[in-house]
Amino acid sequence: MAYRGATVHAAVIVLSGLLLTGCDKLKAFDELQSNAGKTNLQVADLESQSAKYRQELSELRSEIAGLRVRVLVLEANSSKQQADQPSSRQRLAEDDIAKLNVVIAKCVAVARNLPPKDEYAASFYKDFDAFYNVGTGRVQDNVIYNGGQPARFAFNKCMADRGWPLG
What we know:
Elements: H1 2-84, H2 88-91, H3 94-112, H4 119-126, E1 130-133, E2 138-141, H5 149-161
Antiparallel strand pairs: 1-2
Helix pairs in contact: 3-5
């Protein structure tokens, strides 16, 4: 009988262990279900945000298309205004060109007589030249290197001081 009692006792211990293990598994299952519910809520939230962002993207694309149309209209108007304006050659009369050439010559002399910063810059200053290009209607100079920028500045300032600003 003692053997039977020990067997029953061992069986109770094993069954208790199985029940506890089963309870742990049930807890784990409950946690998984809870996590799955949270995950489903997160997925639904992400889907909602995605739909919102798609709508915003659609609105931005519409706005960009509208801006493209506005740019095209502005470019067309700008081209029309440029075509309506007389050319630079028509704006300057022959006597104005002669006056401009005199002012250019004086301002070239001013630029050439600048005191150079160093011996290297002296060549940029003494070789400075400018002229009125009838074809483009613009005053052009021969500055192609940075060393000639002070001479160009002095020339442009001189031209502006004499009523011929070079924009």
